[in-house]
Amino acid sequence: MKSVWGSRNLLYKTVRDFFDGLNFLEVETPIIVPSPGTEIYLDYFSTYWLDHQGKSNPLFMRSSPELHLKKILATTKENRVFEIAKTFRNGGELSDWHHPEFTLLEWYQTQISFEDFMLQTEDLIRTVFTTFDSPFKLPNTFPRISVAEAFAKYADIDLVDEDPDLGTKGKQKGFHSLKVEDDFETAFFKIMLDVIEPELKKLKACFLYDYPSSMAALSKIENDHAKRFEVYIDGVEICNAFSELLDPNENLKRINDSNAKRTQIGKPKMPIDQGFIDALNQGMEPCCGNALGLDRLLAIAIGAASIGEVIPFRGNFK
Fold first, then answer.
1. Count of structural domains within the chain
2. What is the DSSP letter of 235?
3. Which of 121, 162, 276, 279 could form a disulfide with 74, with the two C-beta atoms 3.0–4.6 Å apart?
């Protein structure tokens, strides 16, 4: 069996060879950034830069290279970029499948359809599993299930976006973690975790797509659905992909809305990366982007029980 470093080295080589074959450009973006992300529920590592005048300038450890990769697409002629990126999330994320420091593979391609981007993602995963002669056997094709279909099939719930009674409906179905006072997102994720994800595990691997529009983040909304997909392998979420929102004003509105919701739940507002908005104002071609957890992918590919087996020096966090 390869050492943890040998396995990671082979993984990175496989990823680079895959994208090199598709004429992607590997790039590097900053780890310490003025704005770490736009997510409502995430906690971030904060730091500061002390300038030559002794002034403290707040900065953060990135949770994703998303904003900077989009800046590259918007301000250059590059149309296919990827990064193997060290990323960070605070707030106690230490478990079998979570770690405060982790490795994301994030890639973007312009002028590719949502459906073709799914196929590309599946092809990448199969390539990795083949390289490692994985003991985990993927299905011949990854089933595609919309979020609404999953709720109807596995939870017997007709999902309505921002339904204030979703917690009540879940409790009436006998889902014991649900509370009548749960807001829509809380109830949604409880049902996903307790009811739907165990069913997805039975499929070996699948796509879950078309999320409620209230969960669009920075993805496009079409036909009242967020054009997002996630891949689950053995019941574990591996990636989160968007058909990307291009309009700078709508991006700014979404970020402001996220900050407002952070305030409502007692989390601090995050600074807005004005450089990201300025870049979008230069115009970005239609594109798709994906953030894939390489630690999770490697762990499942080699048959490990958790990412703890594939992250060197994980004992730094106790």
1. 1
2. T
3. 279
